[in-house]
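Sample 1 of the test manifest.
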Amino acid sequence: MPQLGLLHGRAWTVFLGQLRRPPGAVCIRAVRSHSQVAEALFASQLKPQEKSNFIIKTPKGTRDLSPQQMVVREKILNVVVSCFKRHGAKGLDTPAFELKDFDIAGQFDPMIPDAECLKIMCEILSELHLGDFLIKVNDRRILDGIFAVCGVPESKFHAICSSVDKLDKISWKDVRHEMVVKKGLAPEVADRIGDYVQCHGGISLVEQMFQDPRLSQNKQALEGLGDLKLLFEYLTVFGVAEKVSFDLSLARGLDYYTGVIYEAVLLQTPVHAEEEPLNVGSVAAGGRYDGLVGMFDPRGHKVPCVGLSIGVERIFSIMEQRMKTFGEKIRTTETQVFVATPQKYFLQERLKLIAELWDAGIKAELMYKNNPKLLPQLQYCENMGIPLVVIIGEQELKEGVIKLRSVPSREEVAIKRENLVAEVQKRLSES
Amino acid sequence: MPQLGLLHGRAWTVFLGQLRRPPGAVCIRAVRSHSQVAEALFASQLKPQEKSNFIIKTPKGTRDLSPQQMVVREKILNVVVSCFKRHGAKGLDTPAFELKDFDIAGQFDPMIPDAECLKIMCEILSELHLGDFLIKVNDRRILDGIFAVCGVPESKFHAICSSVDKLDKISWKDVRHEMVVKKGLAPEVADRIGDYVQCHGGISLVEQMFQDPRLSQNKQALEGLGDLKLLFEYLTVFGVAEKVSFDLSLARGLDYYTGVIYEAVLLQTPVHAEEEPLNVGSVAAGGRYDGLVGMFDPRGHKVPCVGLSIGVERIFSIMEQRMKTFGEKIRTTETQVFVATPQKYFLQERLKLIAELWDAGIKAELMYKNNPKLLPQLQYCENMGIPLVVIIGEQELKEGVIKLRSVPSREEVAIKRENLVAEVQKRLSES
């Protein structure tokens, strides 16, 4: 994400935050609000010549997590962080520390960072193995254009937009009812909106809207359609266009989006072939919010921004639920080798062995007892999912060997003491 | 760290916190206080049958860090976290989230977890390449024994202990002055104390103290000496005994330590061979605090605990200072490959190429411009320390090749397009 001597900057930020409050969770931080963003932007003092930046916002509050839960959370964060790094993330905060402000990068040509945002979303959601997903895209300018050409008075844009936003939860019939009865929209205007906002499809729908006799008269909408067309071209090159759907009902309640908006939803696999996949909730979202940054530009220029949020808490809850459903066992340590003995007075030999393993970078444990019994030592390995046991006793010491036991197969082989570390490393690299 | 059906537990905790406030730093959290520990213990409700646990406490407050500083901090945390995992850390919080409660593990035989704590300290400090270091050990029971046999009234133990604790900063003469003039100790008592607390050495000093006519009469001191002897035996097996010094002046101001105490200090390399290495400050510390946990045991039993703190802020400041001194350049991204073009209208080809690299897990960047000039692209790679550039232009497209450029050597070779990913991976694995 280079900048290289251009006039204004674009902000490239990634928020790793909450999308919404999962039921029953405590201490959950809400998505970064308009004012928080504004504050962060203000704090950054808009250094237009600085390098673009990723910012990871971790939830301020945390719940008390069990070791199993922490493993799941670490897995999610690892996927997200390594994806960001693959995409040149700079100043990526390790999840240890929370940062508040971000850099502004150079001027970019349209839709290139936007396409990368969507590619990042696809990579993260694929790597998390959450099942099938779809990213809905739309553009605030298209939505505003629709409202304008359908005859919505400008004073009602906001209210009608929030009705449209409900289309992923309630039927068009109910949304129409709300528009007409609660928000006082003329029924024929509502019907015209309905013709648009029930459409979704790929790049062909973008082309179709370009030909639409009413919408093609609206300058704002045409700009939005032009950007979406370009976006779909880049997404096709990235090989992710089939994961993205142009959805004219997508409104994203947040006020600060000014151009392209997107939201990733997980799809439930339909039980019957003819059923449409059900939407089980959004797990990532983002868009452009150029105007907001412009508010703080000393010369009043608009500074384009692209933002992306990953709903870590939401994803965490989904993964946790799946693991419960499928009874998946989660290891709470990464221990690779356990050092055991069947005999008394072998503590020093065990300590010598384990120090050798540690010094070779191998994750190893032993029992903190002078004279443990063998069975509990082996039982512990089975319980904890430790794959290998090295066993030292009198016989082994005399012969200069170590017994190496595979916990899953319970097979044991004698290994020359001097070859132990190499053999353990070989087995671990194969598994 | 198994537990396996025993009566009381031992807590195995690691605090990753602050040791002291580095000068000029803001938002620094102090070391976990007595009451914080007590609270944490209380919250844990002392589940004696649960597995031992590591807890990483990250500083609550953070400073605003530059991307370079974040890289340094991430490096420190990676060393610490991977060391903890190598030692069977369970429930290790990724540095993202802060946890408050910990588990209590099974009954362990003496000094085995304590020796592992010191081994962990040695591994972390070696891997951080902070220069030579020394771990001072002592035992609160030995200190108390010294005070008793030297004739310090029990009411003055605490005050005299805090004077002794200053011996790493001020001379014995000044400490003695404080004891006699400010704290009202008889001069001959102070002199007797001085004979002890100015001693430091290895296991032979432990043996010598066993023979000491006064100290060998004190039951408490003998217990402490017995534990230290065992500790040194295990440290010898671990190959780290030469890094550990029995230092009778080590007091550790904190009240809650009850047995072995330790503190790691960095040593300045002496300019002249005859000079003693100078202590430039403590970077890790820990010890036993059995009694404290006992306070919360429902049956009033003492539950032994081992604790270890790594002074991350202190280490961070030291590393930062060194990097400044030696002018080390720190990369702020991990980008491995930059996708460049010398020609106009090659955006789509660049996007296709970079998507291939991303999909192969390679960290890659491109310029977000339709028609960037070649020189700034190459300049960016040099500035950012990106090692490889892949270049695609008309000629390459026609011939089905990609130019692969090594940034440091500026050498370029043509690679068949279909072999590019493999060649890049080969080069990265070699570097």
